[in-house]
Every structure is written in C-alpha cells, then in structure tokens.
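Before the break, one more example. Copy the sequence into your notebook; we will annotate it together after we see the structure.
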Amino acid sequence: MRRLAIIGPDQQRLEWLERIGQTRDFEVEPLLAREKVRFAAGFDVDALLDEARRHLAQLHVDGITTFWDFPSSCLVPILAAERGLPHAPLRAVVNVEHKYWSRLTQQRVAPDDTPAFAAVDVFADDAGALPPLDYPFWLKPVKAASGHLGFRIDSDGDLRAAITRLRAEIHRLGAPFEAVMERVDDLPEEVAARGGCAAIAESILEGEQCTLEGHVHDGEIQVHGIFDIHRAADGSTFTHYTYPSRRSEAARARMHAIASELLREIGYDHAAFNIEFFVDEDAGRARVLEINSRISQEHSYLMKWVDDTTNLEVMAEAALGDEPDIEVRSGRARVAGKFFVRRDEDAILAAVPDDERIAALERRFAPCVLELVAQPGDRLSALRDQEPHSYVVAYVHLGADDLEELYDTHAQVMEQLDLRFEPVD
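Here is what the structure looks like once it is written out:
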C-alpha cells in the first residue's frame, strides 16, 4: 500500500485522511508535529528539514503534502524534490507565496484584474512619512498568514502605527521565508532586492469575494469548488463562507480563465491550490486578491456535506501523482457554511460549552461541527495569528437545504453556544 506523508496534521484531519486512505489505497504518515510548524515563535527551516529527513529516511513514502501555510507549504517541494515525488516546483510555490512577486506576475498576465500595488521598505527612515498609495489601502507583509499583520490604512496615523508594528513583528515569518528564497536560483532582481521582510501596499478591492479551489495535474487545471466569502459591513474581516457559490456562470468562467493563465505562467503543477477573487458582476471583472499553494482546510466540511467528497482528497491524490476524481453535489446538504464567532473587544474568555454540550448541539443541528479556538482563561489579544480588527474564538460549520435554513440554524446555534467573557482589567 502507498504511504502519504502529511506535514503537521492535527488529530481531526489526520483521522479524516486515514478514512480517505482506506478507500483510496494509501496510508498516512504524520511528519513533523503540528506545533512545530504552526505556533512556534519562529521557524528554523533547516532544522525542520533535517528533522523531516531523519524521519523519512526510516521509511518509504509515495507522496508528501500539507494543508498548512508557510513553512509547511515550502517544506513540501523541497522534501518531495529530494525524493523524486510529485510536487509543485519550489520556484512556483515561492512565486505564489511572496505577495510582491505574485503581484508582479499577476500584473504581467492579467493587468486588468490586478489592483494597484507598491513595495514598502518598513525599515526605511521615511517609511511612515509618505503613503505609497492613495488612502485607503491595505498594508501587509510580503509573507504573511491568516491575515496576521494586515492593516487597513486610512490616514497618516494609521500608516505610522502599522509601520511600527511591522518593524517589531515582520521577522517572525519574513526571516525564515528568506531562508527558503535563498534556495531559488533565479529570483527576479526586484524580488531578491526586497527579500522576505518587506511589505506591500495594495489598493482596496470591491465586489463579491470568492475563493476558487482546484488542482493542477500534468499541466491540466481543474476547478472543483467555488466558495463565497462574506465580510463585515466595513469590509475589515470575514464573517462566514457559503458553498456552493452563487456567482454567475460568466463570473465563474472568468475566474477559471484567470487562474489557468496565472498558474501556467508560474509553472505550478502536481498540487492543489486556491485563489481568492473579488467579483464585480456588473463590470464583468474578477480581480485577484491572492493565490495560495494549498487547499483551504476551512472548506473541507462544506465540500463533504454538499459534494460527499473533500478537498483533502484532492490534496492527497495530487501529492500521490494521481488525477483527483471529484463527484460534486452528491452530499447530504444542498448548501453549507462556515461561520466565524468573533469578538471585537479584548476580553478574557471565562467559559465555553463542555464536550458533552458541544456533542449535543452537533447532534441537534446536524450536519454541524463546532470548533473552539480559545479556552477558558485565554486573553483574546494574546491569541496567535489573529487579525488586528477582531478576535476569533470559535467556528460553526453547518449544512442545510437552502440559505434561509442555513442562517436560521446558525442563529439558533449562537443562542445556545453560551460563550462567556470577562472584561480585561
């Protein structure tokens, strides 16, 4: 039987992949502990590679993959290349994950669908003096994850505050990312000059936000799902995702065409991906927000309930060199959603439902999965990898027959979830 190595799996998704392997003829081998690639204060790329190599030397594997962002996403092509396993080229992965390089590529391939952008040296003496774009705009590290250190800039004061924060924290991901960039021989000069500890300013996109998920197999690009992303009224943060997308056929075709052009230009192959867009139906445009060299695990339950398959299957089969076989719209629900349970103000999480209570809610509102990301006693502002605008404390995954039922069920779940907070002294 074939063996698939998965970097940094959590227990839940490890068990999910093991079940998939029973029907897809592979077994799963965990590679590197989750906390080493997700929640460490910093990443030593060489040390992680060495540990992974020692593990891999003891067994035969037929594929290596991950559903996490950096550093896992960049460890995969390095380790797979050393063993002659299917993988996206490291150069393509770094091209995708370096936000400035990615925008340069998008500008060349799809100029009408790329927002205005500018590189920012946050350590320059005058970095906070002159805005690189007209207000408002977003300011982000060229290497970031989960919205961390992403700032909406509306004024000179916002710019100065963001520069101060970026100077203090940008090295956490930027420095180890530079260690990966050094492994790419033919970096464009303008990318190499910026390195991994720079920032990028981008104009604010408007429209309906979507995520397109797919895979590339021997140069052939397939789309297996499009998800609608819903934001707060001020556009600052996610509130929930719904699946399948309600965008028009023309919009879906436009996103597919842009994704295909970009991935072929980058040379991305033998791997899953997702690309986020802002769609303007009236103008017939689909503008690229970002490209990710991995699936979004946030979509897995939604696909399972609607399609009776998941993007974890796509990820696994692509890593093993197989052509993923997806059968859509054969699940128990017609629509599904993932809702973010957020709090805008800092606080101490005082109480959460216990396991028995969570299980009872999941049975009552099935299909339903509740995930807590904070525990009693946690101070919300101390949680890692949070957006600066609000704090996520839980996720609610739901399936339903239609959107009206989905939103009604969500409201009932929230009434009974009973999260309690205490003010910060």
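The longest helix spans residues 249-266. DSSP finds 14 helices and 17 strands in the chain. Try to locate both features in your own notes.
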